[in-house]
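Hi U.,

Before I forget, here's the chain from the pilot set. I'm dumping it here mostly so it's searchable later in email.
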Amino acid sequence: MKALGGALPAGLKLAANELVKPAAPEPAPQPQPAVQPAPAFMPSPEAKACEVAIGGILNAGQINFDVSLATITADSVPVLEKIAATLQSCPAARMEVGGHTDTDGDDAANQALSEARAAAVRSWLVGAGAQDSAVSARGYGETLPLAPNDTDENKARNRRIEFRVVQ
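Structure:
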């Protein structure tokens, strides 16, 4: 056995009358590149105050449209005037007008309607003196409901315009 053990090829050894190949050493772990998460966007206190103020305006009144259209109704003008004044008081804030719909109808049509309504609100606000570069519009269609679309009341909650601070 001793003589046989000495004649084995490199990497093999004889143990308890069995031929054993030692396990290959584990490869050294490769260093992983440090991935830096993107810094979270933190709006300025002024911009956040503007967003909160607009939220309060929308809690007290709404922006309404003709059914299935992006035409803003006359009863929305006082709300829009307050929002325009708020935007003018915080010129450093960049705000997104977000349009949302319920799930009635075709998904693509709802997406297009939400985009058109957000654009109509943005256009109205810019026409009333808000800085063109400070207001953007985005349609979300039916993708971000506030409530299940199971009652008329919940569907009405989901059909809305929202404002949020963006970079």
